[in-house]
Amino acid sequence: MYKKALASLTVLFFMMGFITCLNDILVPYLKDIFALTYAQAALIQFCFFAAYGLTSIPFSKLIEQVGYQKGMVIGFALAALGCLLFYPAVLLHTYALFLAALFVLASGIVLLQVAANPCVSIIGPKETASSRLTMAQAFNSLGTFIAPFFGAYFILSGLTNSVYAEGVVYPYFLIAGVLIVIALVLSRINLSGMESAAADDSPWDEVLKEKGLLLGVIGIFAYVGAEVSIGSFLVNYVMEINHVAATQAAPLVALYWGGAMIGRFIGIFTLKQFAPARVLITHALLAVGLILFSMQSTGSLAIGSMALVGLCNSIMFPTIFTLGIKGLKAGQEKKGSGLLATAIVGGAVVPLLTGLLADRLGLHHAFVLPVICYAYIAWLGWRNLKP
Fold first, then answer.
1. Where are the membrane-spanning stretches (predicted)?
2. What string of DSSP letters covers 366-387?
3. 69, 194 Cβ separation under 8 angstroms
């Protein structure tokens, strides 16, 4: 049962990563189609990740009522609906409808996140929770690695001939079909053994008193905000530096996310050998150094150092997540997961602010915001080293 549950969750994490990373292709695509500024294009990520801030806690309550498995089935179905809504957005050629479709799609992903993250943490030994969640996140990164190639071939390749953003219809219809199939299969698998035995009946004010959880919430906000900011504007960053077409720049986004994938597979072992907080500090400080170097560089050095930040991102989410919930009592994981998932709204706020800075100062200087985010994460790791 343990292995079956973990295998099912790895498929779930793969699809979450794949769908989320396609936004990095939608940003330059819709920016060109609708002639958007950087700030306007950042609304794609804003609407997608705003769903985390608005729906995570309500969905955590839903999970308490229906359980992990049914919650994930509903999440897949809701995400499929969001994919299908791209069709009327294309027919009416309205940017606002694209944003609405992304919000619905993201709501499904939020429900999957709220159910999956604590589930991975509790289905095995507590002392290996960080390692186990890192492995699941590695498959999430596999999805983010494949998505840019998929998007470049099926979406960006038709950019010069596209007028109404029709390039997104068939790719998202295909994704909707896959999600529906997964939902049907998942609904028929017996995974009752992965449901938490402890009731989550503790009051919210008791959960909120856990300082480590609140600092972890800020950490998730900072991490997702920094990661999404870089991923969202990396295509435009490469195009601006090397003066290449979007289809040539998109594969470099895959290198960024691919670095996270490789780092997560490595992290399965490093997190067992070293204190998770110490590994977190190292990765965060390396990210700060790489971004600062890129901001002061040009050409391949600037692009390569920025892409390497993906390797630093690898273990951050699972490590911050497990550090955030480690002080919670048995049965409080669902509420804690809801709060931590809410913090993914950082992927809405930080990219938007980065886009506003980019419109005024240029992309090179706008990446100072991710630097601040990673600096906080380094401090968070240092704090968790203290007795």
1. 37-59, 71-89, 95-116, 137-156, 168-191, 212-234, 254-271, 278-295, 301-325, 337-357, 363-382
2. HTHHHHHHHHHHHHHHHHHH--
3. yes
Tokens 């498959």, located at residue = 139
Report yes or no: 342 and 220 within 8 Å, Cβ to Cβ: no
Residue pair 313/227 in contact (Cβ under 8 Å)? The answer is yes
What residues contact residue 27 under an 8 Å CB cut-off, 6+ apart?
41, 42, 44, 45, 232, 233, 235, 236
pLDDT of res. 366: 95
The four Cα atoms 190, 196, 197, 200 give a dihedral, to 10 degrees, of -140
Q: Is the predicted pLDDT of residue 339 greater than 80, yes or no?
A: yes
Each residue of 199-235: b (16+ CB within 10 Å) or e?
A: ebeeeeeebeebebbebbbbbbbbbbbbbbbbbbbbb
Residues 201-251 have pLDDT tens digits of 667 777 878 888 999 999 999 999 999 999 999 999 999 888 888 888 888
- What's this model's pTM, rounded to 2 decimal places? 0.83
Structure tokens at 33: 């189609």
Q: How far apart are CA 118 and CA 59, in angstroms?
A: 13
The pLDDT score that the predictor gives to residue 328 is 80
Handedness of CA 218, 321, 143, 93 (dihedral sign): negative
